[in-house]
Write a structure and sequence with these properties.
It is a single chain. The chain is α/β, with parallel strands linked by helices and 317 residues long. 47% of the residues lie in helices and 11% in strands. The chain is built from 12 helices and 9 strands. A 4-stranded mixed sheet has the order 1-4-6-5. A 3-stranded antiparallel sheet has the order 7-9-8, with helices on both faces. Helix 3 crosses helix 6, helix 9 packs across helix 11 and helix 10 crosses helix 11.
């Protein structure tokens, strides 16, 4: 329990491989549905085919496609994935072959350089079309979710964090965490003191993804709060010129500075720190949110506001 933690940086390639699963489904809600229609319209199925086959909607998938730990930089992660040793590819594909059927070509992946090149080119292609255009919005959502989990941890410890990850699919029954995920058969995973890495995911909205063999510790994905950002197919992360002009003014600047000074602020905290009414604080955060400078995640009876990367860049300049 003491070593269980929430990932500090987002994992762009993990989001890519989970999105590959979502592309092959028909579920996920209206936001995912809009994203799916957009991406399918521009994705080259021939180039993406190998990646899609290795990431079925249910079942095991090789983790060398999304190496950990992550710095949050997609290109660095892609380079590391391409450099995966043949032995690692062979071991992971053999592990999967013992548990489920996979395409015939996958058995030769470890000793065929051209096959591996095609696979990683497909990974790059899916990243470019399914994730990169939406990444600023997704990252803002993931950052806001981490702020929410930090609040949960401060209020009720890791027990409260675990209980709120994905009700119905992730259930904390001390001392056991029960997970209904993408793997159909029952397995018992003993952490043996390693703890668990909890990774918020935009695309992991339906089922958690568990990798018991990840190093340095197993990881479990959970859905980031959908209220935290518009996300793929939703409202744009950046605002219009008129919305940005509405930001001018001393009070609103003070509100933005207050939000950026920490891991997020509630409406009540903003009002108290700036010296305005809660109603006025709510109005200012609404304008900031429309301009793409603030992300708001509603959790229980509070609204937690965090600064987006755009806001931090603006303040830094």
């Amino acid at each position: 329990m003491a070593r269980t933690r929430i990932a500090v940086e987002p994992h762009p390639l993990l989001e890519v491989t989970i999105s590959a699963r979502m592309l092959q489904e028909a579920r996920g809600g209206p936001v995912i549905g809009a994203w799916r229609r957009e991406v399918r319209g521009r994705l080259d199925v021939n180039r993406a085919g190998m990646l899609l086959e290795l990431n079925p909607p249910l079942g095991w998938a090789p983790s060398f496609l999304h190496p950990l730990p992550s710095s949050g930089d997609a290109q660095e992660a892609l380079d590391r994935a391409r450099a995966t040793p043949r032995k690692v590819v062979e071991e992971q594909m053999a592990f999967i072959a013992e548990r489920q059927r996979h395409p015939g070509w996958a058995a030769h992946l470890h000793d065929d350089v051209r096959l591996r090149r095609r696979l990683f080119d497909g990974l790059q292609h899916v990243y470019d079309h399914a994730l990169a255009p939406y990444w600023p919005r997704i990252r803002a959502c993931l950052d806001a979710d981490r702020a929410l989990r930090a609040r949960d941890f401060a209020a009720g410890g890791m027990e409260r964090v675990l209980a709120g990850l994905h009700p119905g699919h992730i259930t904390w029954k001390p001392p056991v965490l029960e997970v209904t995920g993408t793997i159909s058969r029952r397995i018992d995973l003993h952490l043996d003191g390693r703890g668990l890495l909890l990774i918020p995911s935009w695309f992991g909205c339906r089922l958690p993804l568990l990798d018991p063999n990840a190093e340095p510790q197993p990881f479990l994905t959970y859905p980031a709060h959908r209220e935290a950002a518009a996300g793929p197919g939703g409202a744009p992360a950046g605002g219009s010129a008129a919305a940005l002009e509405a930001l001018l003014g001393r009070t609103r600047a003070a509100v933005l500075l207050t939000i950026a000074d920490g891991t997020g602020r509630t409406t009540t905290e903003i009002a108290r720190r700036v010296g305005i009414s809660p109603a006025s604080a709510s109005e200012h955060t609404s304008v900031l949110r429309s301009a793409g400078l603030v992300t708001t995640a509603r959790h229980r009876n509070t609204a937690l506001h965090t600064a987006t990367p755009t806001a931090l860049a603006l303040l830094g300049s």
